[in-house]
Amino acid sequence: MRPSSSRRRLARLLARAGQWLGAVGMVLALLLPLGTWGLALTLQAPARAALTQASAELGALDRQMQSVMTALEPLDVLARPEALESVRALGQLTREVEASPWLRPC
Prior knowledge:
This protein has about 110 residues and is mainly alpha-helical. About 85% of the residues lie in helices and about 0% in strands.
């Protein structure tokens, strides 16, 4: 009869351990969503403040970029191919004049 009583004891021990593990699992399963929601609600205000500040800074950068683009708009003409070709032609003409024997400093 000894083996059957030890088996019963082992079965009861395993049943208690299963109940205990089940209870711990249920508590952890409840704590995980509660902790997640608590963390989300706790971090919501700082995240909103950071997003508001970032949006304001991006608006300021956009306004500054618009003013820079307005200031540089007259220089856009210089980037056209015909303007660049004119500058190259003037550079070549200057080099030819400087190399000319007719224009020597006295």
